[in-house]
Amino acid sequence: KNQVEQSPQSLIILEGKNCTLQCNYTVSPFSNLRWYKQDTGRGPVSLTIMTFSENTKSNGRYTATLDADTKQSSLHITASQLSDSASYICVVSARSSGGSNYKLTFGKGTLLTVNP
Amino acid sequence: SAVISQKPSRDICQRGTSLTIQCQVDSQVTMMFWYRQQPGQSLTLIATANQGSEATYESGFVIDKFPISRPNLTFSTLTVSNMSPEDSSIYLCSVGVVWRLPPRPDTQYFGPGTRLTVL
What we know:
The complex is a heterodimer of chains A (116) and B (119).
Chain A: E1 3-7, E2 10-14, E3 19-26, E4 30-38, E5 45-51, E6 56-59, E7 62-67, E8 72-77, E9 86-95, E10 102-106, E11 110-115
Parallel strand pairs in A: 2-11
Antiparallel strand pairs in A: 1-3, 3-8, 4-5, 4-9, 6-7, 7-8, 9-10, 9-11
Chain B: E1 4-7, E2 10-13, E3 19-25, E4 31-37, E5 43-49, E6 56-57, E7 68-72, E8 75-80, E9 89-99, E10 104-110, E11 114-118
Parallel strand pairs in B: 2-11
Antiparallel strand pairs in B: 1-3, 3-8, 4-5, 4-9, 5-6, 7-8, 9-10, 9-11
């Protein structure tokens, strides 16, 4: 069964500090891994998308890593800001047989709170 | 990118009634999906909205409870029928964009969601 597990479930940090969120997955056949940011009351917004061959991808203060061998990913946030307070969701895509269709498996998310 | 709007943004409904949620996309898209996000849970796919034909439902979701329309490539509706408090959730419309030239990973965009509370 395809699964995506995220840790920690929630995290509180002070503004300006760094943090790292973890994602472990058992999804096959793997197509790509995405990190989304979901502000309270809003829909998820894509931060990064990584394929099998990509180890690291950055988007501003967000850096995602992927280890396809151990099936782990992390999202590192540098110099956190109050606006980073949100839920961060790891989503893994499995390519279905026959081409363009794909299936997404969602993690439950890590709720990050950045305090002043 | 695709810009998605949903109506209503939130609603409070009585048990036994039905609510129709609208999803409008600013461009023509082939793949359109409806998700549910219950409190503290991850997103769960309800169905794929197919243009001009019946939606494809995931296990645990049925057409009688969640009828879906997709009259064209930019619009879809999801109805939550005969609601109960267990239907209280955020309902999200999503579209998938397949990139061909140059080829790159498919991208999925989400609408802002409709927060439904059933009393």
